[in-house]
Amino acid sequence: MSFARRTWAIVWKDVLVERRSKETVNAVLFFSVLLLFIFEFTLGADRERLAAVLPGLLWLGVLLAGLLGLGRSFVLERENDCWEALLLTPGDKGAVYVGKLCGNLLLMALVEVVMVTLFTLLMNVEVGRALPGLVLVLALGTLGIAAIGTLFGAMTAHVRARELLFPVLLLPVLVPVLLATVKATEALLLGEPLAAVAHWLKLLGAADVIYVATGLLVFDAVLEG
Amino acid sequence: MVTIVLGWLSAIAVATGMILALLIAPRELTQGNVQRIMYVHVPSVWVAYLAFTVVFAASIVYLAKRAPGADRLAHASAEVGVVFTGITIVTGAIWGKPTWGTWWTWDARLTSVAILFVMYVGYLLVRAMIDEPERGARYAAVLGIVAALDIPLVHFSVYWWRTLHQPPSVIKPGPATMPGVILLALLLNFAAFTLLYAYFVTKRVSLLRADADAAA
Question: What is the count of structural domains for chain B?
Answer without folding.
Answer: 1
